Amino acid sequence: MNILYKKNILFLIATLCCLTSVAQQALFGGNEIVSPEVNSDGFVTFRLFAPNAKQVQVTGDFLPNIKVQTPFGEVEQPQTIDMVQANGVWSYTTPTSLSPELYSYKFKVDGLDYLDPSNVYMCRDIASYTNIFIVSKEKGDKGDLYSVNDVPHGNVSKVWYDSPTLKMNRRMTVYTPPGYEKGDKYPALYLLHGAGGDEDAWVSLGRASQVLDNLIAAGKIEPMIVVMTNGNPNCEAAPGEWSKGMYKPSFMGHMNPAPVASMEESFMDVVNFVDNNYNVYTDKQHRAICGLSMGGGHSFSISKLYPELFDYVGLFSAAVSLKNNFRLEETSNPQNEADPIVAEQLKVMFENNPKLYWIAIGNTDFLYQANETYRNYLDSKGYKYEYVETDGGHIWRNWRIYLTTFAQRLFK
User: Fold this and answer.
1) Is residue 120 located within the same domain as residue 176?
2) CATH number, domain at 121?
3) What pLDDT is recorded for position 161?
4) In three state form, how does the secondary structure of the chain look?
5) Model confidence, pTM
6) pLDDT band, residue 26 (cuts 50/70/90)
7) Binning pLDDT at 50, 70 and 90, where does residue 395 land?
8) Is the peptide bond between 239 and the residue preceding it cis, with omega within 30 degrees of 0?
9) What is the rounded average pLDDT for all residues in the chain?
10) Sheet order of strands, 356-362 included
């Protein structure tokens, strides 16, 4: 064995030892930075080790909002706050106690977005990731409701089904309540996501399975099956989980290429699959539909297209229009005249006397005017509905509240 060969072998062994050491350090918790540190009093401290950075900031929905002009109108976005550096560690502590809630955040390091390397908990919203944390101060508060607690748990399944209308196999997420395996029948809630989302959105961002588990355990809702569809009719499943590959998701990516049919036209494929494969009641009294934003628009359209299908309808910050198709540029139009087809569909639906027609929106939501126009139309016709208005805009914090409230009104 020559000297050069021996040196190469020794170098390789040393390199492997270093790599093993680094791997073991990561495996056994070499990162000693605690971030975020959530104190029992609701104060939260964020930390990032970045000794060479010139500026580190934190932004998230725990901070006050500022108004920003976008192509969709004026919307609210969280402020960005400078962090303070000491010995290479940048930190920021909230000046006030945070209310119980699930919060999201990210860092900005010299102007670039940066996830917290000390926090493995994160969510994807369309094409961006943020870290998350939960503040809870007592049993039963919102933070506790969104947490995984020591209660019986339902199952969450990714289920493929055939959609003859869309000419493809598609995927949905289905929640079955604790005890479903015993064979009893259950009512079904169809829970729809917004633009840019997919069948993962309500579980990931909406904490739907935690909300359902905890509400069922507390005896506040009826055990139910919850069906979370993919509302993008030209997609089989969430990004990266179907044959199109690892494309970058976008806000209105479901519009290109054009699907062979709409979500509304194909929705009976979903209902028929659920009726034939799950232990569900198949009458109107045991079906509900609700959704947020685009999914609220789908719920609005599906409920009037199939007026004998649902006894419970929930519109969360819904993209509603009295025209045949929703157009964002028309949402500021105060005219409440409906197209004849829409008017007739709504007339038939309300003649079928749904037990609950529920509308909720934030008072700074960019779809507020569209919802007000729609409510004015319902009032002019004497159609019965319930209305909830909350603070804030087009945000998951509101939609989690709406799901929690709406679910407690179902199947009573």
Assistant:
1) no
2) 2.60.40.10
3) 98
4) CCHHHHHHHHHHHHHHHHHHHHHHHHHCCCCCCCCCEECCCCCEEEEEECCCCCCEEEEECCCCEEEEEECCEEEEEECEEECEEECCEEEEECCCCCCCEEEEEEEEECCEEECCCCCCCEEEECCEEEEEEEECCCCCCHHHHCCCCCCCCCEEEEEEEEECCCCEEEEEEEEECCCHHHCCCECEEEEECCCCCCCCHHHHCCCHHHHHHHHHHCCCCCCCEEEECCCCCCCCCCCCCCCCCCCCCCCCHHHCCCCCCCHHHHHHHHHHHHHHHCCECCCHHHEEEEEECHHHHHHHHHHHHCCCCCCEEEEECCCCCCCCCCCHHHCCCCCCCCCHHHHHHHHHHHHCCCCEEEEEEECCCCCHHHHHHHHHHHHHHCCCCEEEEECCCCCHHHHHHHHHHHHCCCCC
5) 0.89
6) very low
7) very high
8) no
9) 90
10) 155-163, 168-176, 225-228, 188-192, 287-292, 312-316, 356-362, 386-390
Can you give the CATH number for the domain in which 271 is found? Answer: 3.40.50.1820
Query: Torsions phi, psi of 165, nearest 5?
Result: -65, -40
Residue 21 forms part of a structural domain: no
Per-residue pLDDT at 332 exceeds 90: no
pLDDT score of 8 more than 50: no
Mean pLDDT over 376-396 rounds to: 96
Decide if 25 is inside a domain.
Answer: no
233, two tokens: 């009719």
How many structural domains comprise the chain? 2
| 29 found inside a domain | no
Q: Does a structural domain hold residue 17?
A: no
What range does the domain containing 294 cover? 149-407
**End of a domain among 144, 169, 203?**
144
User: What residues contact 9, with CB distance under 8 A and at least 6 apart?
Assistant: none
Last residue of one domain, picked from the residues 95, 111, 144: 144
In this prediction, residue 114 carries a pLDDT of: 95
**Beta-strand pair 168-176/128-135:** unpaired
Residue 7 has pLDDT above 70, yes or no: no
Residue pLDDT, tens place only, 313-324:
999 999 999 987
| pLDDT tens profile 225-283 | 999 999 999 999 999 999 999 988 887 665 677 899 999 999 999 999 999 999 999 99
